[in-house]
Amino acid sequence: MAQVFVYGTLKRGQPNHQVMLDCTNGSSAFQGRGRTVEPYPLVIAGQHNIPHLLNLPGRGHCVAGEIYAIDDQMLQFLDEFEGCPDMYQRTPVRIEVLEWEGRASAPEEMPAAGRIVWCFVYSTASYSPEWLHLPYHDSYDSQGKHGLPYNPRENR
After folding, report:
1. Closest CA relative to residue 1, chosen from 65, 66, 74
2. What is residue 108's DSSP assignment?
3. b/e sequence 137-146, b meaning 16+ C-beta within 10 Å
4. What count of Cα atoms within 13 Å lies in the side-chain half-sphere of residue 10?
5. In Å, how far are 35, 61, 81, 83, 123 from 86, measured between CA atoms?
């Protein structure tokens, strides 16, 4: 099982979360909440108001999201779903655990709050230069105060 950190539309309560629950895509289990150890620019961009984590560590904010344990089938599905490697690139990133609900075979294997874990994240190094001048967010909600509601794939 791999760990993936989701910060946008794949989080619980967000428009694409259902793909994380669909067993035909593979297996995923919510493990907990976390945030990136390093700051990154999280922007909402494009005509469909898609959240993008720009692969520019050291800029922006530490970004909040969710940690999932996923199997190889789900990892392959997410690669395709996220347009990897063209739109997003899957890279390992250090995540600080904020809350942990995941299971472990032994209590000492459960990361406590404040512990650092490595997770895959879908960030992008291919973006329009003007995205650097968009507001940077520390978390994402498709109906957030930013006033940029996400346009779901089925409506495009």
Report:
1. 74
2. G
3. bebbbbeeeb
4. 25
5. 25, 24, 11, 6, 11
Paired with 133 in beta bridges are none
| Per-residue confidence in pLDDT tens, the chain, 156 aa | 999 999 999 999 999 999 999 999 999 999 999 999 999 999 999 999 999 999 999 999 999 999 999 999 999 999 999 999 998 999 999 999 999 887 654 455 566 778 999 999 999 999 999 999 999 999 999 999 999 999 988 888
CA dihedral 101, 107, 109, 111 (to 10 degrees): 40
Distance CA 95, CA 38 (A): 8
Burial class (CB in 10 A: 0-12, 13-18, 19+), 79: middle
Tell me, yes or no, if 82 is annotated catalytic: yes
State in Å, rounded, how far the first CA of the chain is from the last one. Answer: 33
Can you tell me the distance from the alpha carbon of 156 to that of 150, in angstroms, rounded to the nearest whole number?
Answer: 11
Q: Catalytic residue among 66, 80, 82, 154, which?
A: 82
Amino acid at 38: E
